[in-house]
Amino acid sequence: MAGASAQHKKIARRGLMFVLSSPSGAGKTTLSRMLLKADRRITLSISVTTRPKRPGEVDGRDYHFIDTLRFDDLVKNNELLEWAEVFGHRYGTPRRPVIEALQAGRDVLFDIDWQGTQQLRERARDDLVSVFILPPTVRELERRLKSRAQDSKAVIHSRMAKAAGEMSHWPEYDYVIVNRDRAQAFAEIRAILAAERLKRERQIGLSSFVRALQAKL
Ligand code: 5GP
Asked: Which residues line ligand 1 (CB under 6 A)?
């Protein structure tokens, strides 16, 4: 049996692009962190942004914080897989780390908004799995935004005002999770990822694996 499971691990698999989107305050960042900690086969795509760093954020871990001139260069040189303006700042996904991870059969996690998800869908439909996270109530959304305590009152207010517009994009996603309970939402995210990894077309090494099995019969 040990031999069979070791052989199974060798089945080549194409990595998938796993997008989590939500209005700010629905719990997406916490769930992303939990996933990265629990699952070693998925890597976070670290975006570039022109937004100022918040207290506690680390350059290169949370984002690559860059200025608008550098951002313009990245766009011009086609170095971003997608990019968008969100809350008055620009955000984008560096192309190369994503391509390299996928080619190595690793999955990539994206914490990006609906505009970025649309662009990824246009460019890589077959590799994309998208999940939209909704807050259970407006009161809970507000509570989470306030408890973050990193943003000013004006920023919190503007994020609340934009939440309705952001939420309207839920029908564009493959899966929708209502984050009533963190442990439950996390279990649901892991179930989606597990099932998507098993999709036949993502297991590109299956035919040679089955041929090897048949050869021994
Ligand atoms: P925050 O400023 O709170 O970190 O992020 C604001 C919004 O920008 C979030 O909805 C987040 O998902 C989105 N975002 C972060 N990075 C990217 C990116 O690279 N591309 C796009 N399209 N959205 C991003």
From this structure: 24, 47, 51, 82-84, 86-87, 91-93, 111-113, 115-116
